[in-house]
Amino acid sequence: MDCTEGFSSVRRQKRRHMTGKIIKGIAGFYYVHDQQKKVYACKAKGVFRKRGIRPLVGDDVEFTILDEEAGEGNIDEILPRKNQLLRPASANVDQALVVFAITQPEPNLNLLDRFLVMMEMQEIPVAICFNKMDLGKEKDQLFYEEIYKDSGCQVYFTSTRDGQGVEQVRERLRGRTTILAGPSGVGKSSLTNLLHPEADMETGMVSRKIQRGKHTTRHAELFCVEEETYLMDTPGFSSLCVEGFEAAELKDYFPEFYRYKEECRFGEDCVHVGEPVCGVKAAVREHKISQSRYDNYVLLYQEQKGKRRY
């Protein structure tokens, strides 16, 4: 028997088939966590491209280990997805945790409300986390609690410096795959490292594979916090363009409007902006709906309405 044929046979025998989860995709490689402790750099088969399927962070996959020592493999199959998000591009997501600083910098509530609308459109539950409470005051907490009490979002207040509120957030994450999102500089990385101290090490390991040093997140990246609990870190954002809806649909993405729409003269057709008899506008005047939330709604409505003119 030819010695090269024997060598190839041995190589084939060493290949193992496993299931895992894509935790990061970059430069044509998909990094698959074996749901234990190891990450494999994998290529996706060309058949996915022919089918018009792109592997996503969060995908559960079947893969073949080509080289155990080097941690290399091929993705053979993408398992059925529970859901798929467009922004950030990801799959099998249970919820989102959006993080803003309560101060330094002051939270941009228009940006926050844009994110909430984007998640509402994709039917993803959201929890809001105001970080840096060690720099804030009790009145700040009461102020933001009042604004978002009827938004359909649980609100958490944390400090990564002294650990305040972190355990409550950890409990919220348990057993779920969660998108962690928010602007840069609000403490997302610090929160990730408190929830999952090995995140720095895992980031470094993947960075060495792609010959890139540790830095602020540039791509969606998934961390296994504990069994069946994943946290997806995403790049920080300073602006959001919310698209894919008609201006008249926007009211459906503000949950606190629901209970007052029956008081609108034009019923379901009321968009709560220029109509003369409107239950939502009355609720704003009576401080039953946050003025801040309503103002951001009007800005988004007018922005979307303006797009339709061109």
Q: What does this entry look like structurally?
A:
The protein folds into 3 domains: 70 residues, OB fold (Dihydrolipoamide Acetyltransferase, E2P); 149 residues, P-loop containing nucleotide triphosphate hydrolases (Rossmann fold); 61 residues, Ribonucleotide Reductase Protein R1, domain 1. 30% of the residues lie in helices and 24% in strands. The chain contains 9 helices and 13 strands. The strands form 3 sheets. It has a 6-stranded mixed beta sheet, sandwiched between helices. Strands 1-2-3-5-4 form a 5-stranded mixed β-barrel. A two-stranded antiparallel sheet has the order 6-7. Helix 3 links the parallel strand 8 and strand 9. The protein starts with a helix and ends with a helix. The N terminus is likely disordered.
Number of domains: 3
Q: What is the share of helical residues?
A: 25-40%
Structural class: alpha/beta
- The overall strand count is 13
Largest sheet: 6 strands, mixed
Q: Which series of helices and strands comes N to C?
A: HEEEHEEEEEHEHEHEHHEEHH
Architecture per CATH nomenclature, i.e. the level-2 architecture of the largest domain: 3-Layer(aba) Sandwich
What is the top-level CATH class of the largest domain?
Alpha Beta
- Rg result: 23 Å
pLDDT averaged residue by residue: 86
CATH topology of the largest domain: Rossmann fold
CATH superfamily of the largest domain: P-loop containing nucleotide triphosphate hydrolases
Please give the alpha-carbon distance between the first and last residues: 72 Å
Main sheet: which strands, in order across? 10-9-8-11-13-12
Strand content: 15-25%
Helical region count?
Answer: 9
> Which regions contain 5 or more consecutive residues with pLDDT less than 50?
3-13, 201-215
Overall geometry: globular
